[in-house]
């Protein structure tokens, strides 16, 4: 019913954090360039971009799940948006239980997959740095 609300909330928070971090990284790069620092070779991926990977995974899942729930009639485009909310207190407690179990598990799983993606990306970047250093020498 409402399991997509938990990853949706995480997606909103992660998107906001990624936007703030990207702004910080841009300001930091601008200040470093003003001091005469060299431009990076572009081999490293900024953490804000990696956070946008997580946001993309979360938003994709949320949109897909919301469409699936809409398709099955569990969500409607008018108030109350969740059909279980109109059925009474028992349905609301069932909906909250589903959010606490299924929704949290989905959010944790997606975040864990993203963590593996970041670890693999870090390993690839770490391996690429010595290769470029050897090529320059």
Describe this structure in words.
This protein has three helices and no strands. Helices cover 75% and strands 0% of the residues. It has helices at 5-34, 47-71, 89-136. The longest helix is centred in the C-terminal third of the chain and has 48 residues, at 89-136. The chain starts with a helix and ends with a helix.
Mass-distribution shape: elongated
Helix residue percentage? over 70%
When the domains are counted, the total is 1
Pick out the low-confidence regions: none
Main structural class: mainly alpha
- SS strand fraction: under 5%
Question: How far is it from the N-terminal to the C-terminal residue, by CA?
Answer: 60 Å
Give the SSE string: HHH
pLDDT averaged residue by residue = 85
Number of helices: 3
What's the Cα radius of gyration?
21 Å
Main beta-sheet annotation: none
Number of strands: 0
Record keyword descriptors for this entry.
about 140 residues, mainly alpha
Overview in brief:
It is built from three helices and no strands.
Q: What is this structure's SSE topology?
A:
Layout: H1 5-34, H2 47-71, H3 89-136
Helix pairs in contact: 1-2, 1-3, 2-3
């Amino acid at each position: 019913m409402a399991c997509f609300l938990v990853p949706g909330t995480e997606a909103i928070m992660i998107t906001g954090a990624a936007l703030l971090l990207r702004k910080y990284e841009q300001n930091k790069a601008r200040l470093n360039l003003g001091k005469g620092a060299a431009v990076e070779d572009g081999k490293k991926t900024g953490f804000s971009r990696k956070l946008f990977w997580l946001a993309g995974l979360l938003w994709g899942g949320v949109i897909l799940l919301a469409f699936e729930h809409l398709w099955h009639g569990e969500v409607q485009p008018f108030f109350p948006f969740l059909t279980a909310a109109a059925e009474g207190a028992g349905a609301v407690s069932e909906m909250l239980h589903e959010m606490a179990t299924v929704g949290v598990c989905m959010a944790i799983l997606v975040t864990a997959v993203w963590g593996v993606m970041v670890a693999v990306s870090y390993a690839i970047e770490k391996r690429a740095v010595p290769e470029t250093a050897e090529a320059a020498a």
